[in-house]
Amino acid sequence: MNDTKNLACLVCGKTEEEVPLFKLVYRGEELRICPQHVPLLIHEPQKLVGKVEGVENMNPA
Ligand SMILES: [Zn+2]
What we know:
Elements: E1 22-26, E2 29-33, H1 38-43
Antiparallel strand pairs: 1-2
The structure holds zinc ion (ZN).
């Protein structure tokens, strides 16, 4: 597992050098997501299946 990939937005791969990132912790693993993609996580988590392990267990708000 490559640690540096978690330091960028899990959707678009932008780093905290480029945009402010929210930090998420899921199953002991830190994830980052940029403000642009937070709504996606909230409303359409199924779109992140394959990017975030376990996201299929999340229900859209
Ligand atoms: Zn993003």
